[in-house]
Amino acid sequence: MDASCLLLLIFTVMTASECAESAERRCINNTPESYNLIEGEAFYFVPYDVENPDEKFTWFRNNSDNEIGNITSDENEDVHHHGGALFLLNPVLTDSGLYTAREDSSSGECYNHYVTFRVFKKSLRFDSKLLYEKIKNSDGNKKVPCPSTIGHFCEKLNGNFSWNKDSEPLEGRHEKDLWIENASKADEGIYTCICTWTHNGMEYTSSASRRLKHLEPSVHRDVEIISPANNEQLAEEGVGIKLSCSVFCGTDVEANCKASWHIDGVSPDQIAGYNETMKPVSQSPAKDTISTAILTIDKVSAQDFNSKFVCRGVGMYTLRNVTLTLKPRESIIPLVVGGVCVLFFCVFAAVLVKCFAIDLALFFRPCFPLSRCDKDGRMFDAYVVYQMQSVDKANEDALCQFVAKVLPSVLEEKCGYRLFIHGRDDIPGEDRLELVEDRMKQSRRLMVILTPDSESESSDQHPISPQNPLIGGFDWQVGLHHVLLQREMSVILIQLGDEGPQGYAHHPAGLQHLILKSAPIRWYEDSRSAAAWNSRFWKRVRYLMPATPAKQRPQSAII
């Protein structure tokens, strides 16, 4: 083969290759489209970038076995095409899939158009997948446009518009764009645009729905810092803490309200040991918008007490800052120790008063003399009443020993009191009745000595007489009158030994009444401190005696 033939062959091959590549490049793939359809509702589709749908088109469909089949142009079929327009007159679930159109333009170029249809059951008409973009604003008059998918081809096919709200027809509304004047909460719902159109003498319907939501008018206000309310907050070093920054921005302004923290001008996200979290914007029933940022400090350090924590609130038009500083919390240990000490002191004082009340009263008695008692003009500190009748020998000896020796030796000799005791202080020849009455009036206390198993005798068995100075006798009757009725003197009850098996039930009613008010002081002859003037028994007796003994008062006050 000569050189000219070889060059001709190479040129022919290259030309054929370039022509094939050029033909392959002429077929351009356009952007795929996708639509959701409702079972039984007709649909008309023309690729969005097709200017002349009467160009030469060939339509294909990929079936479930991924096999490609041609789509007919027979207008009697439910699925057919007319040039670049594809008709799905009665779509069913099995019509879902990928559809491809090959366009051969008059200029010799080739285009591939792709569209995917998904057919849903009628029961899913108001499913979120089938609803078009939601209308959500606070306008007084709201515009609900018919979704462009239905609106465009309805106008092109000279169809008629109608509207439903929540499946209920809206009478007299046949415009493409539905206007709702003075909209309120009651106008919320799903609005469906319905197009009724005719093809080959048959009437078909297509619809598209969208939801309408009414918003209250937004009111932007100057940012107000709700928390922190104070510029200082107590914290403990080494312990974690959470700081809350809450800001109020207005009414229904969720998109333009933000709270945040800054530490010495730096965002917490850039500092180790700090974490900032945002709470969802809260909406009160009044639609007040509050944004909250929570700053978490894992462990408070000494540096944190010198840092400035800035709570920043940003609204639509304003910005406001509040600076917060941490102050070390004082240890509660001194407070606890102090509280325990105070509690211990109070308990100790209560026990001390309870156990030593009489001792304390006797100790401070000289410091607080009762001037009223000093001026009463009485001669004796106590009038002693006792019972000798119906007492056995042992008790009689004990009573005589106590009245004649023990009582005077302690109260008179050691404590300075003056007592009136029958048999010792009687003046011979003086009238007994007048003596008892006069000495009773001259006494400041009535001291009753009780003996074991003392029996109360009635006035019939033991007639009252001046010679019977016994319990239940004349002395007792006069003393009872002064103590219970005239309230001119106090009574001191002393029980020698135990009260006996009968208790105090056998005593006169007046004496029982006094015993119930003040239990008798018990004296035991054989006790180790029976005669000691500072024993517990004698302290109780001295506590009941007058504060200032008669012997210590001036003689002029006695006479």
Automatic annotation (TrEMBL):
SMART domains: IG, TIR. Pfam families: TIR (PF01582). Residues 378-545 form the TIR domain. SUPFAM superfamilies: Immunoglobulin, Toll/Interleukin receptor TIR domain. The chain crosses the membrane at residues 332-353. Residues 1-22 form the signal peptide. One of its GO terms (biological process) is signal transduction. GO terms for molecular function: hydrolase activity. Keywords: Disulfide bond, Glycoprotein, Hydrolase, Immunoglobulin domain, Membrane, NAD, Signal, Transmembrane, Transmembrane helix. InterPro entries: Ig-like_dom, Ig-like_dom_sf, Ig-like_fold, Ig_sub, IL-1_rcpt_fam, TIR_dom, Toll_tir_struct_dom_sf. Residues 217-323 form the Ig-like domain. Belongs to the interleukin-1 receptor family. PANTHER family: INTERLEUKIN-1 RECEPTOR FAMILY MEMBER, INTERLEUKIN-1 RECEPTOR TYPE 1. This is Interleukin-1 receptor-like 1.
